[in-house]
């Protein structure tokens, strides 16, 4: 009864930014809650990996990342403020388990409710290994010491983009081969072949590719997307990240001295990046997403003046 009365007292004294109601509401749908203002500390991709790691664990583990203002409850001792916040959140969540709350880059606090895990010493050990700005490293270190299995490995974004580009090129190659076969069968030979415009040398093609990649980089810099909207919407953030990954991948291929086939991949990669950037703009404006035109962007990359 004394513990219950103490928690009720804590609940009644926490107000405003120090009220954990938003955290408790977030825990109803996900074991990891990241305040929208803290996405730079724990990005969406890292938060998703933490979710995969703890969502089925027993005892239950709940993680929250909140701004440092959550410690502003009037107490001079901010450790007591952190303790009050976590215990109040646990009481309102009404579930036994391990609770970990990151207060910006200032403090991380953990409590075990109804379970025997020694979260205090474990958290102290991990905080000594990581900087306060490395919240993801600290949280994963705690989970390691709690013997929580790591999340299944996922393909890096750049590799996923590369695989998509390869699939598009393979599909285009098969289609082109089929079209050429039918053309040779049905077309009467003429005295003059129509040859698509191509740069004269491999170096000229590389120069055009570098120019297109640089232009795409400038488009990314000038996109002027609202950062708050990007941070709050995971779909917009994924589009922006994919566009940046495409730009980085194209640049790496060019730096490696790309040959003819690699240059085609660079053009397709840049086209894919432009499409994802256009998707981000459309989502923010509430407009229909543009259609993915695949190798059509490759054709435009060969003629940059065409828009």
TrEMBL record:
Keywords: Membrane, Transmembrane, Transmembrane helix. The chain crosses the membrane at residues 157-179. This is TPM domain-containing protein. It comes from Kribbella turkmenica.
